[in-house]
Each structure stands twice: as structure tokens, then as C-alpha cells.
Specification:
Elements: H1 12-28, H2 32-54, E1 59-65, E2 68-74, H3 80-87, E3 106-109, E4 112-115, E5 128-130, H4 143-150, H5 160-175, H6 195-201, H7 212-225
Parallel strand pairs: 1-5
Antiparallel strand pairs: 1-2, 3-4, 3-5
Helix pairs in contact: 4-7
Length: 226
């Protein structure tokens, strides 16, 4: 079939082609030839960028992870979470939102909790890092892990490593007298860990299964036994 028969007007196909061409011109402001030139320029720029990426020099980074000394040669753009999961096969820290909003990647750095997806590995040269794999002793769970099991503080379990690391860090912060957003007296040197305090201090860790009541109960158990 041709775009136009000898004895007929424009065919449906020719009308569609004309419509597409008109829409293309309206959307880009470029004629087909100009668009091709722009596409070639875009490809050239992308190729140059890829070439620049290939020349990035790895940075030697020394980390102490779960009481083990590790030295890695890292692309300086590597997040701590990706270094843990991809370079060291420590997959307990989960990649949830990858934007620091869910807390599934929480680890302890020098005893303080942090979202591993929001920090670069090279920023922690020489730091002490504890992941969920490093909390337990061989054959003995960490008290917080035991409490989560006893209280059934998890359902699908995806958020659980981050919840437990965050809970351990949170108890240390409370013990040090750090106030939270719901603390009545921000100058107090001791913190009474009410359910409201625990919920507020754990608010950076989301649980899609909504096991929150059991998580709070588990943390309260550990706080009371300490």
C-alpha cells in the first residue's frame, strides 16, 4: 500500500505520518534533521561523561567493621551501604528507600546510629562500624535481638536489622541524657523511656508491617533490664 493512491486523496497512513511529524515539531521545536543533530550531540556528551567516569581514581579506605579490619579501594562516590552490601557481602543492612527515609540501612558508627545510604564510605576512614551482623556474639544473640524474638517485633523482617541497630543506638543516646522532641525537660540528665519517648526516638525507622507495638515492647524490655 502506498501513502497515496492514484485515484484517492491522502490515505490514513499519510495522515498519521503528517500528524506525528507535526506533533514532533511542536514538542521539540526542531525539524527532523535538527533533531538528529541534537541526538548526535547528546550521544557525544554522554560518551564524554562515560569516559570521565572511567578515569575516576579509587580511594583506599580503611574501615573497622564488626571488630574486623578492612581496607577497600573504593570509587569515592560509593555509599557506605553499597560498600557493605556489594564489596563486603554484609547484606544484613537493607536497601529500602535509598533516600534515608525508612531506616532499613541503619548501622552504628562509633556507637552512633546513621543511615548508611546517606553517607559515603570514604568519609569513614578509620571509623568503627557495627552492622546487624556484628551485634551478636557467636552463638549468643544481642539482648535487643532476643527481645525482638520474645516480643515478636517483626513480621516480614525486612526492616528488623535497621530497627535493632537503631534501638541499640537509641538506648545509648537516652542513657547519655540526650533529649528528644517529646522530652518534657530538655535539661534533664536522665531520660525516662516512656512509650512516647521510644516511639519518637525510633520514628526514623519505618515498619511496613506495622509491628510497632511489639517493637516498642521489645525496646522497653531491654531498657528495663539494663
Amino acid at each position: 500500500m502506498t501513502d497515496q493512491d492514484d485515484n484517492a486523496g491522502p490515505t490514513r497512513r499519510s495522515v498519521l505520518k503528517a500528524g506525528i511529524a507535526a506533533s514532533f515539531l511542536c514538542a521539540t521545536g526542531l525539524r527532523p534533521g535538527e533533531q538528529q543533530a541534537q541526538a548526535q550531540e547528546t550521544a557525544r556528551t554522554a560518551g564524554a561523561a562515560a569516559g570521565n567516569a572511567a578515569t575516576i581514581t579509587p580511594v583506599s579506605t580503611h574501615l573497622r567493621i564488626n571488630a574486623r579490619e578492612v581496607t577497600l579501594d573504593l570509587d569515592p562516590r560509593t555509599t557506605l551501604l553499597d560498600a557493605l552490601r556489594h564489596q563486603l557481602a554484609l547484606t544484613g543492612s537493607k536497601k529500602g528507600c535509598d533516600h534515608g527515609q525508612c531506616g532499613a540501612c541503619t548501622v552504628l558508627i562509633n556507637g552512633r546510629r546513621i543511615n548508611a545510604c546517606l553517607t559515603l564510605a570514604v568519609m569513614h576512614d578509620g571509623d568503627e562500624i557495627t552492622t546487624i551482623e556484628g551485634l551478636a556474639e557467636p552463638g549468643v544473640l544481642h539482648p535487643m535481638q532476643t527481645a525482638f524474638v520474645a516480643r515478636d517485633g517483626f513480621q516480614c523482617g525486612y526492616c528488623t536489622p535497621g530497627q535493632i541497630c537503631s534501638a541499640v543506638g537509641m538506648l545509648d543516646e537516652a542513657e547519655a541524657g540526650w533529649p528528644s522532641h517529646v522530652s518534657q525537660d530538655v535539661t534533664a540528665t536522665t531520660v525516662e523511656l516512656s512509650d512516647a519517648e521510644i516511639r519518637e526516638r525510633m520514628s526514623g525507622n519505618l515498619c511496613r508491617c506495622a509491628a510497632y507495638p511489639n517493637i516498642v515492647a521489645a525496646i522497653r524490655d531491654v531498657a528495663e533490664e539494663a
